[in-house]
Design goal:
Number of strands of chain B: 7
Number of helices of chain B: 10
Strand content of chain B: 5-15%
Helix content of chain B: 40-55%
Radius of gyration of chain B: 19 Å
Radius of gyration of chain A: 19 Å
Largest interface: A-B, 46 and 47 residues
Structural class of chain A: alpha/beta
Number of strands of chain A: 14
Number of helices of chain A: 11
Order of helices and strands of chain B: HHEHHHEHEEEEHEHHH
Shape of chain B: globular
Oligomer: heterodimer
Helix content of chain A: 25-40%
Strand order of the largest sheet of chain A: 3-2-4-5-7-6-12
């Protein structure tokens, strides 16, 4: 049975189902208890699972590190970070500890934890509540990095992340929490590391993820009016990265526009572009284009924020340049 | 809490295993046999042994970059530990972790740590996990005076205190963070006094007296197992060598080093064992010989063990 759920509800359902399925799963974070989470994701869980939904002090290095220790010793913690910007405070525990442990310990352990964290701008929250640092973590061996774009993917990917034996960073876009979409009632997972073609097309490939999937689909609709048939590839997971789907699409359309919300340098779009340049350059009929945020912290003033962050129009313009019209 | 004679003899043997191991590591490093760098535990043996003697096999510890002593005290084998320092395939971590990351989760050893203060939240999480799973396990976080200035120390103790977690925070105060005398960068004299701020017991103990350390640890462990929460134990001790092997000793006086060597924990314990007629001098001598044999076998094991194969460099990244 398919129903319409919001992204928030889909995530909450994934948590409840996994907690019911596996008693090792528990939830910890700031305001995740009776408050229900800053964005409402953990609403109701506190009463449903007594003793398994833990309100944490505001102490990111401490409680993310505690999740690492808990994961190492037989639990499967799901940590909520209220805003992903604060991931910097907990980075040692993620990068030096969680990501390296299995390797440093010679494969004798695993760290099955999920860190959920809201990302993204377009809400005038300024530079400490708007940023996206996924490129930093996609860079680190041992971590997996997930950014779902729809309620269906949010639920299926979160369930897959919880069942995964590695540390997974799960970035949820704040603009998507209220978005509704079809979500099956039956148990399903969306595998980590598998991209999804959100719109099939033959003239140009847009590779993107998270909220920019929505922007790209809107751009594709506009471009369709001009007779440009856009394929939108949603990466869903940036680490592991589904190179095959990217390359397959580019070999079909012969054009690539790579779109991300965060800054351009050293980012996911840089990586996607490099992979295509290395492995499919002979298929390209036009130079690769990248769409990303301008290189400044996200500003507060709405008109400045609109200027700095990518827009649907930016994507439309990039596609048009690629097809030479 | 009456310690059996047998247990005290085991504690003596464990301290010796650390001492001989570290002495040899120092020599092997000076000879250029061991890669990387090593931070030795010489002089602090009573802390690891006193604390770990109060633990069960399935309890957890996290350690520091000065971790060999903790690993041996928690049941680590000298041969596999030595092989890890050689970077060999037979080491505890297949040669991928080395001195600063040695771990063996089956022995409850959740890793030495190259990040000062990095292991403290992990031990806290192990305590949280024990509580969530409803076991009676406890977790010990070993860290130094330097680690006690990290945010992770304060965040972890606050969390453990608020949740009554079964965690024992063991500070090995050896006076120096690398080459900086800690009194220059910390106003409070006793690190244990910081426990007041978290409403938990803060205990100061002579870190060169293995029985005193054991008694303090045992009380903290019992309290933790009863569900009454964490304890902070500060062990006053001293590292005989510099921060890492090969570093020039420019920041301490010879007198200070000599003074602390005079308070060394193993000789002190030998006097106790013989005066209290727990063991004769001959018995202690035969234990020393046994440990020396064990060490020789460990070095031989490490030397003759195979190198890891190159393909292994790309294994164990993901589960």
């Amino acid at each position: 049975m398919m129903r319409e759920l919001t992204y928030t509800q889909a995530l909450g359902e994934a948590l409840a189902e996994e907690m019911r399925r596996d008693e090792r799963v528990f939830v910890m974070g700031l305001d995740v208890g009776p408050y229900g989470g800053a964005f409402g994701v953990t609403q109701g869980l506190y009463d449903m699972f007594p003793g398994r939904v833990l309100d944490m002090p505001i102490s990111e290095a401490g409680y993310v590190g505690a999740a690492v220790g808990a994961a190492l010793t037989g639990c499967r913690p799901v940590v909520e970070l209220q805003y992903s910007d604060w991931i910097t405070i907990a980075s040692d525990q993620l990068v030096n500890q969680a990501a390296n442990m299995r390797y440093m310990f010679g494969g004798t352990c695993s760290v099955p934890m999920v860190l959920r964290a809201p990302v993204g701008g377009y809400l005038s929250a300024a530079a400490q509540h708007s940023h996206m640092f996924e490129s930093w973590f996609g860079f680190v061996p041992g971590l997996k990095v997930v950014l779902p774009a729809t309620p269906y993917d949010a639920k299926g990917l979160l369930k897959a992340a919880i069942r995964d034996d590695n540390p997974v960073i799960f970035f949820e876009h704040k603009q998507l929490y209220k978005v509704k979409g079809p979500v099956p009632e039956e148990d399903y997972i969306v595998p980590l590391g598998k991209a999804d073609i959100k719109r099939a097309g033959k003239d140009v490939t847009i590779v993107t993820y998270s909220y920019m999937v929505d922007f790209s689909l809107r751009a594709a609709e506009q471009l369709a009016i001009d007779g440009i048939d856009v394929e939108v590839v949603d990466l869903r997971t940036i680490s592991p990265l589904d190179e095959e789907t990217i390359l397959e699409s580019v070999r079909k359309t012969n054009r690539l526009v790579a779109v991300q919300e965060t800054w351009r340098p050293f980012g996911v779009v840089a990586e996607v572009s490099a992979i295509v340049a290395e492995k499919a350059v002979d298929y390209l009929d036009a130079p690769i284009k990248r769409v990303a945020s301008k290189f400044a912290p996200v500003p507060f003033s709405p008109n400045l924020e609109r200027y700095v962050l990518p827009s649907v129009d930016d994507i439309v313009a990039a596609v048009k340049e690629t097809v030479g019209s | 809490m009456e310690l059996s004679h047998e247990k005290m003899i085991t504690m003596y043997r464990q301290m010796l295993r650390i001492r001989y191991f570290e002495d040899r590591v120092s020599k092997l490093f000076a000879e250029g046999v061991l890669p990387g760098f090593v931070h030795l535990y010489l002089g602090e043996e009573a802390v690891a042994v006193g604390v770990c003697s109060a633990l069960n096999d399935d309890d957890y510890i996290t350690s520091t970059h000065r971790g060999h002593g903790h690993i041996i005290a928690k049941g680590g084998k000298l041969d596999r530990a030595m092989a890890e320092l050689y970077g060999k395939k037979t080491g505890y971590n297949k040669g991928k972790g080395g001195s600063m990351h040695m771990a063996h989760t089956e022995l409850g050893i959740l890793g030495a740590n190259g990040i000062v203060g990095g292991g403290i939240p992990i031990a806290t999480g192990a305590g949280l996990s024990a509580k969530m799973r409803g076991t009676k396990q406890v977790a010990v976080a070993f860290f130094g005076d330097g680690g006690s200035n990290q945010g992770t120390f304060h965040e972890s103790i606050n969390l453990a205190s608020a949740f009554d977690l079964p965690v024992i925070y063991v500070c090995e105060n050896n006076l120096y963070g690398v080459g900086t005398r800690q009194s220059k960068v910390r106003k409070v004299e006793h690190i244990a006094d910081r426990a007041v701020g978290y409403a938990i017991p803060g205990v100061i103990v002579d870190g060169n007296d293995v029985l005193a350390v054991y008694r303090a640890a045992n009380e903290a462990v019992e309290r933790a197992r009863r569900g009454e929460g964490p304890t902070l134990i500060e062990c006053k001790t001293y590292r005989w060598h510099t921060h890492f092997e090969g570093e020039p000793d420019t920041y301490r006086t010879k007198e200070e080093v000599a003074e602390w060597k005079a308070k060394e924990p193993i000789g002190r314990f030998e006097v106790y064992l013989t005066t209290e007629k727990i063991a004769t001098a001959q018995e202690l001598e035969s234990i020393r010989r046994e440990v020396m044999d064990e060490l020789e076998a460990a070095v031989k094991f490490a030397e003759t063990s195979p190198e890891p194969e190159l393909h292994e460099a790309l294994e164990d990244v993901y589960a």
